């Protein structure tokens, strides 16, 4: 299993949480800022941490999710 922990942090809080999650994962893993992730391919599990604005994901993260995450609806 390969795990990705990706985060976007404006104040540093999401980065700290991402680092804590990363430290607790016993599998092969990598940690990156969301803006440095080109694709989720090759990962079996991804944790994404990001700020919320106006009751939804911050716009760059919303675009990332729309581009890289398939809907299950």
Descriptors for this entry?
alpha/beta, single chain, two-stranded antiparallel ribbon, 5 strands, three-stranded parallel sheet, 73 residues
Descriptive report:
The chain has 73 residues and is an alpha/beta fold. It has one domain (3-68). It has two helices and five strands, in the order βαββββα. The chain has helices spanning 13-24, 59-68; strands at residues 3-7, 29-33, 45-49, 52-53, 56-57. The strands form two sheets. It has a three-stranded parallel beta sheet with strand order 2-1-3, covered by helices on one side. Strands 4-5 form a two-stranded antiparallel ribbon. Helix 1 links the parallel strand 1 and strand 2.
Short overview:
The chain has 73 residues and is an alpha/beta fold. Helix content is 30%, strand content 26%.
Strand and helix map with partners:
Elements: E1 3-7, H1 13-24, E2 29-33, E3 45-49, E4 52-53, E5 56-57, H2 59-68
Parallel strand pairs: 1-2, 1-3
Antiparallel strand pairs: 4-5
* Terminal CA distance: 26 Å
Structure annotation, total helices: 2
The whole-number mean of residue pLDDT values reads: 89
Overall geometric form: globular
């Amino acid at each position: 299993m390969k795990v990705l922990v990706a985060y976007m942090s404006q104040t540093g809080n999401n980065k700290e949480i991402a680092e804590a999650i990363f430290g607790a994962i016993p599998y092969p893993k990598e940690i990156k800022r969301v803006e440095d992730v080109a694709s989720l391919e090759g990962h079996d599990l991804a944790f994404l941490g990001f700020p919320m604005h106006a009751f939804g994901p911050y716009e760059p993260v919303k675009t990332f999710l729309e581009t890289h995450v398939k809907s299950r609806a």
